[in-house]
Amino acid sequence: MLLQAALGLGFLVGGAHLFVEAITATSRSLGVSPFLLSVFITPLATELPETFNSIIWLGEKKDTLALGNITGAMVLQSSLVPAIGIFFTPWVMGRQQLWAVGMALLAGALVWGVQVKKGRIPGAILILNGLFYGIYGLAVSL
């Protein structure tokens, strides 16, 4: 069991390293910032498998597992991962980073405001939040 855990961790770290190298190489070939490309691709790469697991579980009427899976992934992505990033990297907030923070705060405020006012979050609001990605992409590419 310990060997399997160690191998799994090793492959996870190795895969993450390859992913970062691929983002960097792709951004150079496209002529865009690695940060800009990672803002669009990394959430898909990290959360898409969790989403598919949850969809499968919803199809099997295991909604508790589906919700727990997404919630656990979000907690990990919003606590441990940023803490490690903050600790091990220098934080230089340029124009792209400030736009990313601003769009994330606006999108979060919109969802929170609707939740407080209506007691629920309609799907249309979540789709509308997707527009913040587009606004961000346009703002930093001009």
Report on this structure.
The longest helix is centred in the first third of the chain and has 29 residues, at 2-30. The protein has helices at 2-30, 34-59, 63-78, 80-88, 95-118, 123-141. With 142 residues, the chain is mainly α. It has two domains: 1-91; 92-142.
Counted by DSSP, the helix tally is: 6
Distance between the termini: 51 Å
- Cα-based radius of gyration, to the nearest Å: 18 Å
**SSE order, one letter for each helix or strand:** HHHHHH
Low-confidence stretches: none
Name its key features.
mainly alpha; 142 residues; 2 domains; single chain; globular
Lay out the secondary structure:
Blueprint: H1 2-30, H2 34-59, H3 63-78, H4 80-88, H5 95-118, H6 123-141
Compose a concise summary of this entry.
By secondary structure, the chain is mostly helical. It has 6 helices and no strands.
